[in-house]
Write a structure and sequence with these properties.
Shape: elongated
Strand order of the largest sheet: 1-4-5-7-8-10-11-14
Largest sheet: 8 strands, antiparallel, barrel
Radius of gyration: 23 Å
Helix content: under 10%
Length: about 260
Amino acid sequence: MNDTFKSALAGVAFLGMVLSSSAQAADYTTSSWAGLYVGGGLTVNFGDMEFPNGSVTTNVNGATTSGTNAGSETNVNGHVLGGYLFQMDRLIFGAEGDYTFGDSHEFGFPANYASCGVCAYAGGIGSLDPQGRVRAIVGLELDQTTMIFVAGGVAFADASFDGAYGIGVVNGNAAAGIGSGVNRSDTLVGYTAGGGFQVKATNNVLVRGEVLYDDYGGFSGFYSAAGSASDGNNSASGSASSNGSIDFTNAAARISVIWKFN
């Protein structure tokens, strides 16, 4: 179980503790959060491609780095959302769907890679386009203008994978290897978990901040590539191998303005 999902579960446990203690509070009048709502805003998406069973390795003059991350990119996207909440005293619960639009994450060769002097690159070639989520929400009213919540459910994304690459560059002499095979492209279905807070600007206008983590799974396939360059004094090489699995994840921070219908 990954650390992000553990954190989401810890948030649920914390919310349960707060609910238990808050139930003892007397003479408190709750605000209304229940009902239909729609909204939109901006999302900062941090997309990653991983080779969880493989490796991504670079070596520059004997200094080696190795891991499983085959590509990372950050984009700012727009989103729209809508849902319905129910309320029992301070406890708030319901369901929500959202849709993300804007640029997709594009993974592949770094720009101007041949002009770096002595360096090496490795990773995967593909794309990730987060589409949206359907989530259950459980929240707690802290006061009459503020609630906190955790949420989880199903996440959707369009993804493609075209191969692996390894590049070695020495003073403008670049050697690149590309491991290609059957190109993969599909809509992936995974899970999402997150949480945040929501405040009332007016009875109908709400402002929300939240963080989310989406794990979409991915494709199966064996892709590998390597490239190396040397001039006798310097050497650089990069290699990547999927070793059977290509996974996609996305972390997001977003802010939304929401209209709650009476």
